[in-house]
């Protein structure tokens, strides 16, 4: 029987206790970047997964290509249901699986893949709180090299995506919020270190609640309880919250945190600033 999840997050101890369980699929979704702002570039981190290590049994999930839309105008555009199904099946995921996702950063890539799974109706998915950083720092076992043995892909019958949920905001939705036609709290999740000192302006009316605010630097885990609620206090009473960043990755950390806080009307602006800067070069705020 697959392990049962009771939260969008699992601890390193939970994962250690359940490694090797039937139907548990652990995914390393790490992505590495160079540059900042409009000069940022992204690379799949498969080499780091193999050479620097990963959680034993974890499979590498390629967010740059496999779990994104090819030929999209902006990076990391979410995949179609068909592409999502194909990528998940290749990793051995079935509709009976319990999926735990992590990365080697502050959780933005893990949260992005978690959001994609949930968007397609798959709820038995959680993010490893603290990620590979916390796992490694605690001295837990690390496997170096490629995954031993081939992953047996699941079949078309054993994994099907559900109908896509309305958990994404597009450019027009954000524009309506900016103009006041359809109110929403718009939250910028990208920290200044990712945007750089010299970048175009951000979405007007944004509230900056970045990953630096949400993630505890001492543990690399999400803040909890009253501390997390205090971080989101400026927007928590909004009927709807739209999160965004550079390409829709850090935005998913905020979306994850808001889900932990119990807010059920959260959308991620999929195109984020990569799209906003292209479509609205004049409608920006410093």
Number of strands: 12
Order of helices and strands: EHEEEHEHEHEHEHEHEHHEHEH
Radius of gyration: 18 Å
Largest sheet: 5 strands, parallel
The overall pLDDT, averaged over residues, is 95
Provide a count of the helices.
11
Category by helix and strand content: alpha/beta
Oligomer category: single chain
What is the molecular shape?
globular
Beginning-to-end CA distance, first to last residue = 52 Å
Strand order of the largest sheet: 1-7-6-2-5
Low-confidence stretches: none
Helix fraction by DSSP (H/I, runs of at least 4)? 25-40%
Q: What amount of the residues lies in strands? A: 5-15%
Short description:
By secondary structure, the protein is α/β, with parallel strands linked by helices.
Structural write-up:
It is a single chain. This protein has a 5-stranded parallel β-sheet. A 5-stranded parallel β-sheet has the order 8-12-11-9-10. It contains 11 helices and 12 strands. The chain is an alpha/beta fold. The mean pLDDT is 95. α4 packs across α10. The chain is 30% helix and 15% strand.
């Amino acid at each position: 029987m697959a392990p049962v999840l009771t939260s969008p997050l699992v601890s390193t101890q939970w994962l250690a206790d359940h490694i090797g369980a039937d139907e548990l699929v652990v995914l390393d979704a790490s992505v590495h970047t160079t540059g900042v702002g409009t000069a940022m570039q992204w690379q799949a981190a498969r080499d780091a997964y193999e050479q620097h290590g990963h959680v034993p049994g974890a499979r590498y999930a390629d967010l740059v290509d496999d779990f994104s839309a090819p030929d999209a105008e902006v990076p990391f555009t979410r995949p179609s249901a068909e592409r999502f199904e194909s990528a998940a099946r290749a990793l051995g995921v079935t509709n009976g699986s319990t999926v735990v996702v992590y990365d080697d950063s502050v959780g933005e890539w893990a949260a992005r893949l978690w959001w994609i799974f949930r968007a397609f109706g798959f709820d038995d998915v959680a993010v490893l709180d603290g990620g590979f950083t916390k796992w490694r720092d605690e001295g837990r076992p690390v496997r170096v090299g490629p995954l031993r043995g081939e992953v047996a892909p699941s079949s078309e019958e054993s994994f099907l995506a559900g109908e896509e949920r309305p958990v994404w905001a597009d450019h027009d939705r954000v524009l309506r919020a900016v103009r006041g036609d359809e109110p929403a709290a718009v939250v910028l999740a990208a920290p200044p270190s990712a945007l750089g000192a010299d970048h175009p302006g951000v979405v007007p009316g944004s509230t900056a609640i970045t990953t630096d605010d949400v993630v505890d630097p001492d543990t690399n885990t999400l803040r909890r309880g009253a501390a997390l609620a205090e971080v989101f206090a400026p927007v928590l009473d909004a009927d709807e919250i739209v999160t965004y960043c550079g390409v829709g990755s850090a935005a998913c950390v905020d979306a994850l945190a808001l889900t932990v806080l119990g807010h059920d009307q959260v959308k991620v602006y999929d195109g984020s600033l990569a799209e906003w800067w292209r479509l609205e070069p004049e409608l920006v705020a410093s």
